[in-house]
């Protein structure tokens, strides 16, 4: 059976008008964008032409300046090849002084570190991060800083000696390099847009791994231009620096050593004072323990002394229960006896409470006695460490000029 062919969908007049307007809008937008692109393209072409010309002129000026710089340094490379051996000998003596100063820091560093280790054996509350520990740690930092500085200075002296010994060799090498570089840059400066032999170079803008900065180039050439004179002046400056470093490091080491010793002395005095006060308080606590023990005995006797009156009162009450007939009267005697029993019971209870308080106080005093004795032992241990161990060790420290 044949299928019925569906007619294509029909649109409304409004949809027809909307479609037309959309086409108008899109066409106008594309035309405007194309017009803007043409304007921008023209401006860009003009801008790049001007920029390229200016850049090439700037490059030419820089090439001329570079050729001038090379010529200046090349002319300087023909001078001065003397006065190195005496400076090397003098610098070697300064190097030996630095080595001796560096070696002399080992013992003070070992002592400062040993003091820190010793003070780790302080006990309980005395194991405190006090001023002595901070000053000792600072002393270790100062000595290690001095060692690092002296080591760097030693390396600088060694390097300067190497530079003095190698100056003559680099004079000729740098002069040859300058001659070759001058020829290359002169050739580059002569090139124009119409020159023959122009070509596109692969990886032309690649920065060579062994390239240097202008400052590095100038520093290198400057060393060779000044030759031995420059290295001699550098060595003289270094010797002056070494003198200053040796003086300053000595001052720093002496000042920190004195600061540690003064802090130790103050801490020892504080510990002695604290130990003395603790011993005084211990004596007072011991006296109070003896007094409290007497007080407890007195309270026990007072409680025991209430037993007889209580027995009398209770016996009287019991006996009076045997009065016959109407004589079994709740008279004033009866009421007063009852009051007496309650009164004695209350007093005994109060005495027992006070006895419990006294016994608790005695236990507290005994605990405090033990605590004070322990703390006194702690202080004695701290004194032994600080006064008898550390300060005796520190007597070996002697920072002297080099």
From TrEMBL:
Pfam families assigned to the protein according to its UniProt record, in alphabetical order: Tektin (PF03148)
Location(s), subcellular: Cytoplasm, Cytoskeleton, Cilium axoneme; Cytoplasm, Cytoskeleton, Flagellum axoneme
GO cellular component, one term: nucleus
Gene Ontology biological process terms, A to Z: cilium assembly; cilium movement involved in cell motility
Major location category of this protein: cytoplasm
UniProt KW keywords: Cell projection, Cilium, Coiled coil, Cytoplasm, Cytoskeleton, Flagellum
Top-level lineage group: Eukaryota
Coiled-coil residues: 268-302, 341-375
Protein family per UniProt: Belongs to the tektin family.
Its job: Microtubule inner protein (MIP) part of the dynein-decorated doublet microtubules (DMTs) in cilia and flagellar axoneme. Forms filamentous polymers in the walls of ciliary and flagellar microtubules.
Protein name: Tektin
């Amino acid at each position: 059976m044949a299928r019925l062919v569906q007619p294509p969908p029909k649109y409304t007049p409004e949809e027809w008008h909307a479609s037309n307007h959309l086409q108008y809008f899109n066409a106008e937008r594309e035309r405007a964008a194309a017009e803007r692109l043409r304007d921008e393209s023209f401006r860009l072409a003009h801008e790049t032409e001007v920029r390229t010309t200016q850049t090439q002129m700037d490059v030419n000026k820089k090439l001329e300046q570079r050729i001038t710089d090379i010529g200046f340094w090349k002319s300087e490379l023909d001078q001065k090849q003397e006065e190195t051996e005496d400076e090397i000998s003098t610098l070697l003596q300064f190097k030996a002084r630095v080595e001796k100063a560096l070696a002399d820091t080992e013992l003070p560093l070992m002592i400062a570190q040993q003091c820190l280790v010793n003070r780790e054996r302080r006990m309980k509350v005395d194991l405190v991060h006090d001023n002595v520990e901070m000053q000792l740690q600072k002393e270790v930092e100062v000595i290690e800083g001095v060692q690092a500085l002296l080591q760097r200075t030693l390396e600088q002296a060694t390097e300067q000696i190497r530079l003095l010994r190698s100056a003559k060799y680099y004079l000729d090498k740098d002069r040859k390099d300058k001659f070759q570089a001058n020829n290359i840059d002169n050739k580059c400066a002569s090139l124009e847009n119409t020159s023959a032999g122009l070509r596109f170079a692969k990886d032309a803008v690649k920065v060579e791994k062994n390239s240097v900065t202008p400052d590095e180039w100038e520093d290198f050439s400057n060393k060779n231009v000044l030759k031995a004179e420059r290295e001699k002046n550098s060595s003289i400056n270094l010797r002056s620096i070494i003198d200053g470093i040796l003086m300053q490091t000595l001052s720093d080491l002496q000042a920190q050593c004195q600061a540690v010793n003064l802090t130790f002395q103050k801490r020892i005095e504080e510990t002695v004072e604290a130990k003395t006060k603790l011993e005084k308080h211990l004596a007072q606590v011991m006296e109070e323990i003896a007094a409290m023990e007497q007080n407890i005995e007195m309270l026990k006797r007072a409680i025991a002394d209430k037993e007889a009156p209580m027995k009398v009162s209770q016996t009287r009450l019991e006996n009076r229960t045997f009065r016959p007939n109407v004589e079994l009267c709740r008279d004033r005697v009866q009421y007063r006896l009852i009051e007496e029993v309650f009164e004695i019971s209350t007093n005994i209870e109060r005495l027992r409470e006070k006895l419990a308080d006294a016994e608790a106080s005695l236990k507290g005093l005994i605990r405090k006695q033990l605590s004070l004795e322990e703390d006194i032992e702690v202080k004695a241990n701290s004194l032994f460490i600080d006064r008898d161990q550390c300060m005796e060790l520190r007597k070996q420290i002697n920072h002297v000029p080099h």
